[in-house]
Structure formats: C-alpha cells, structure tokens
C-alpha cells in the first residue's frame, strides 16, 4: 500500500531525514515513534504530499506521490496534530466543505456527512460552530474530515494529544475500527497506544530509521541479558544455597505478597534472575530446582518494555558526523518542517 524508498529531506544543507526505507501493507496499523525533532512530522508531510523529498521516492497504491500527486492525495486521509478547522464554520458546513474539496460525488455528500456525524459521535453538534467545540470534539471533527472521502491510507499525527482519558479510549476504539478497512500510520508519544493498537512499529531517531518490527518481537530480542521472574515454594536460604554456585545468573529477591522481603506466609519466594548473556537458561533452571525438590509455581520470561526499547534506541546517538566532512547535521523537527525559500515561492 505504501512504499517509502530511500527518502531523504535536506534543508539549506541540513538533514531532516536520511534514507528512510520501509513499506506498509493493506490493513496494517503501524506506530511511528521517535523523540521530538526526529523527523516524524517531516516524513508524514512527505508521504501526504505537503513536502517533496530531496531524494528517494514515495509510492501509494502503485502511484508516485511526486508524479501523480492529485490522484494519490485522493487515496490519503491526513490528520495533523492540530486539525485544520475553520472556527466560523458549523460542523455540518465544514464537513460539506471538505467533502467538496475531496471530490466526493455531489449525490453522496449528504449521506457521507450523516455517516461521519454518526461514526464520530458528533450527533446534536451539526449546527454548532467549530470555535465552540471542546478539544475532543475538534479531534473527532478533524478525523471525520480525514476519512470522509474513504481513503485507503490514513496518516494520523498525535490523534489523542490533549484529550481526557474517556476521549482517548473513544479515539483508540475508532482507530482500531478504522484499521479493519484502512492502512493506518499512527504517530504518537503515548507508547502504550502502540502496544494496544499497532501490529508493527517504526522508530526514527535523528532522521534515520532505527527499528522496524512488532512490539512483542523486539521486547524479547533486544535485551543484552536474559531475565526471568520465578515464584518457588522454598525459603530464601534454600534458594541462596542452590543458586550461589550457579555463576551464570544474578538474583534479586522481590517483595512477597505480605510486603516483606524473602519468604512469604505461604512459604514461597519470588525472584528475578538475570543472566550474564542473552542465552535462555530456563530449561537448566527448571532441572536445577526440580532436582532439589523445590516446586516452581511460576516462571515468566521478562521482556524489555516498549519504553525501555524506545530509550535504548533513541538515547544512543548516531555516528557523529562533522560538517567539515560534508555531512549535513541533523536538525530539529520544527525547523525541518519549515519550507526552504525555494519551496515557499
């Protein structure tokens, strides 16, 4: 559905994004993550045709964004972080305006508006001025405008930003529903949204793609050390005597259910065992404990959280390339999203 091929964007000799390369299939919901200034908004603006890449190509459903821009834009719905709403319009007039801009057939406009009002929970707001809407309803209206022409690809930039918990849950449910019939690229700073909504994630740092894959897979594959939490029917001293000679792991006792460190009232101990390498030691641990007659009540592999993955990939700086070698510096996203003099003419 979407192919981003070796895409770069440079402003006045400064690099915004560098050789991005990824694809999205129909029906995918993909989380697009990165710290502020990483190039997320620049990338989304290039995908949606608002900016032209300096190098590389972007193809949507087999058509080039650069060469067939109008046809491609009809296949894309875009919701910026701040929806482009007109405060003096009513909800209904705004949706009619957008439907006309998006070349929705005249005979279908009334039906589409009714569908959007119902689907986005805008009932009884049709005659209300946009300026009088709450933040949550403005987000809903912006999303209605992004999907009123039934696009194949939906690009959402921080769609739940500034919403209250109830509104966030409603928008997430809607995105999940939209993912059944649309391809969705979702930029967010709320990492649990990625785990909840997305079957794949992209992480960008300093303009370069540093990760592409499922959140679940990378949680288990990126750890430098293998980690397991266990609950064993034993005393802390028994486990200490058994595990101390086993040099391949270090252990950390967890508070028991009664709040004390060590053996709880049920005669069990909870521990986290961390290996000195990524090697899986669970089978060896099982035979070690069972051979000593210590029943394992629970054994769980501990994966890196999405927050840990994000920090691991975005706090390690990319190769420091000095400008005197002819390599452009990374730029902040706010400047990267500003057009060059030539683009503004």
UniProtKB/TrEMBL annotation:
InterPro entries linked to this entry: AAA+_ATPase, ABC_transporter-like_ATP-bd, ABC_transporter_ATP-binding, P-loop_NTPase
Domain of life of the native organism: Bacteria
Region described as Disordered: 315-345
Pfam families found in the cross-reference section: ABC_tran (PF00005)
Keyword Transmembrane belongs to the record: no
Keywords, comma-separated and alphabetical: ATP-binding, Nucleotide-binding, Transport
GO molecular function annotations of the record: ATP binding
Compositional bias per record (Basic and acidic residues), positions renumbered to this chain: 322-345
Entry keyword ATP-binding: yes
Domain ABC transporter: 2-231
PANTHER family (alphabetical): ABC TRANSPORTER ATP-BINDING PROTEIN (PTHR42711), ABC TRANSPORTER ATP-BINDING PROTEIN NATA (PTHR42711:SF5)
Family per record: Belongs to the ABC transporter superfamily.
Name listed for the protein in its UniProt record: ABC transporter ATP-binding protein
């Amino acid at each position: 559905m979407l192919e981003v091929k070796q895409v770069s964007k440079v402003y006045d000799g400064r690099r915004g994004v560098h050789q991005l390369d990824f694809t999205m299939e129909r029906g995918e919901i993909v989380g697009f993550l990165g710290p502020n200034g990483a190039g997320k908004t620049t990338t989304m603006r290039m995908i949606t045709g608002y900016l032209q890449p300096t190098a590389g190509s972007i193809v949507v459903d087999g058509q080039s964004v650069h060469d067939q821009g109008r046809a491609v834009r009809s296949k894309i719905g875009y919701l910026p972080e701040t929806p482009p709403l007109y405060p003096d319009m009513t909800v209904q007039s705004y949706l009619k305006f957008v439907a006309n801009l998006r070349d929705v057939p005249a005979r279908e406009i009334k039906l589409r508006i009714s569908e959007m009002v119902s689907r986005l929970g805008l009932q009884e707001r049709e005659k209300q001025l946009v300026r009088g809407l709450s933040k949550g309803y403005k987000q809903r209206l912006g999303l209605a405008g992004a999907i009123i022409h039934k696009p194949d690809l939906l690009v959402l930039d921080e769609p739940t930003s500034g919403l209250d918990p109830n509104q966030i849950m409603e928008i997430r449910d809607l995105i999940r529903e939209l993912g059944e019939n649309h391809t969705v690229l979702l930029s967010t700073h709320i990492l649990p949204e990625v785990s909840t909504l997305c079957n794949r994630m992209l992480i960008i740092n300093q303009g370069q793609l540093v990760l592409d894959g499922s959140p679940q897979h990378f949680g288990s594959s990126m750890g430098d050390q293998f980690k397991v939490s266990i609950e064993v029917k034993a005393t802390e001293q028994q486990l200490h005597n058994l595990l101390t000679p086993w040099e391949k792991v270090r252990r950390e006792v967890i508070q028991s259910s009664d709040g004390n460190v060590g053996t709880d009232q049920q005669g069990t101990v909870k521990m986290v065992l961390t290996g000195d390498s990524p090697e899986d030691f669970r089978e060896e641990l099982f035979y070690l404990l069972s051979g000593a007659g210590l029943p394992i009540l629970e054994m769980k592999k501990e994966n890196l959280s999405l927050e840990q993955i994000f920090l691991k990939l975005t706090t390690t700086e990319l190769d420091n390339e000095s400008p005197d070698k002819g390599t452009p510096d990374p730029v902040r996203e706010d400047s990267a999203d500003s057009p060059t003099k030539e683009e503004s003419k």
